[in-house]
From TrEMBL:
PANTHER family: FISH-LIPS, ISOFORM E, SLIT RELATED LEUCINE-RICH REPEAT NEURONAL PROTEIN. The gene is LOC115883073. This is Leucine-rich repeat-containing protein 15-like. GO terms for cellular component: extracellular matrix; extracellular space. The keyword Lipid metabolism does not apply. PROSITE patterns: LRR.
Amino acid sequence: MAKWLPPMVLIILVPTTNLENDDGSCRRHLSVLNWPQITCTNVDNSFFQHFVASPNRTHWIKCTNCSLNVIDERTFNFLKNNVSYVELQASRIRTLKRLAFNKLFLLKYLNLRKNDIDYLEPKCFTGIKRLLHLDLSFNFLKILTNNIFSDMSNLDILNLNYNQLFYIQPYAFAGLVNLKYLYINHNDLKKLEDKMFRYLPNLKILYLEHNSIVEIHQNAFFNLKNLNFLYLNNNSINFLVQYNFKPLTSLIDLQLRLNNLTEIQVSSFNGLSNLRTLHLSNNNISIVKPYGFVGLDSLKVLDLVRNKFVLIDFSYFDKMENLEVLWLNNNSISTFEISYKSEVQNSLVILDLSFNNLSMFNYKLLYSKMPNIKEVVLEKNSMNCDFFTNMYNFLQDKNVTLCVSSHCNFNETVVYIDDICSEVYVTSTDHVYNSTDFSTDCSTNFFGSTVFMFIALSLALFC
């Protein structure tokens, strides 16, 4: 008879981390998206290595006030999981090692902002091919090395704001073929290198504000044929070469506010055939070279506020057949030249010349060059009463509102006219009163003298 032996059971004791630790370090709840979430507080980088809180049923892991220091391939060693959102904000992370997140193969959102990361080890993002959003803002990155994002073909948003980036290697963005939004604000870039964005053919929005950019290579924007919005505000750009933006055939909005531009070169914006708004305010521009704005066939808004213009020639804006709004306020314009040869701007609706030094200009000729104008703003210039009131009456007859503020209120204009003409009216009125008194006195004296002479003549005849 066979002898039956009881089955042997091997029990291996492995240190584990429970969902609810004695110190209450983790808790399960619903995320803002109503998904299962585990939030852990005050844990270190070894904590998740022995994590048994059923991550396969969890979509979201969040770490608050943690001390993770180094993330490597053992940190999130989950064999099976459905984790798609990981938030490690302000977790004192210094280094991302090779394959740091490769076990999180369903990951779509990774937040690493406000850490101490100054270097990304090669292949640290390998294995997370489904990632859509990567936030590395508020770290200490100085260089982006080649192929660092090469395994992220589905990435949609990359946030690199508030780092210390001064150099981006030529192949740093390789692999990001579906990236739509790229944020590199508040870094230390000084030059946009040749073809540095070549691997971003589907990019829609590019933010490069608050850097130290001085120079833009002629081919810096090569292959950005789908870019719609480019923001270069708050840099030190002092020169634009011809055809600088030519590859950006889909660009709608270009912003170059608060730079050091002094003049608009020939064909600086040529090729931007779909551009709708161009913002050049707060530069030092005083000159527009011939054909400086050529190629802006679809432009609707041109912002030249707070520059150094003393003279404006209306011919600067030739060939802008769709221009609707022209902002020239807060310059030092004392001369507004309008030639009979200048092209007619049929589309222009708003012209703002406020806060300049204009005393007069040929407003009748100007109106003939912009026959569909609706508002002309002339607040704070040097125009006298007669000129301003004549212009006001002329434009009013043409159904054009002459404004003295950005609000363009009719009553404000009337009050303004009263103010600038008050002294003239007072002087004129005093003069009329004095003339009237004098004529009255004269007629009275003449009448008295006539009576006296008539009496004297009568006495002489009768005597």
